[in-house]
Amino acid sequence: MIKPLLFTYLAMAIVVILMDFRHLKQAAAINRWLSYSLIAVATGIWFYVTNLSKTVFVSVWISHVIQRLLPLP
Asked: For the whole prediction, is pTM greater than 0.70?
């Protein structure tokens, strides 16, 4: 039920990215690379979350990473 909605969201996001591609080409190089890397990371997280047999919440995954870095009482 949720995966068709997620794929619809991905399709809409791709359409928006294609529409903004012209504007991204006119941006400064650093802004262009930051935009493309952010889009790639977000798409990677999206595929990681939706392609698993169980649901993985990104906030839980990030909390596990942060718990390793921060000393907790």
From this structure: no
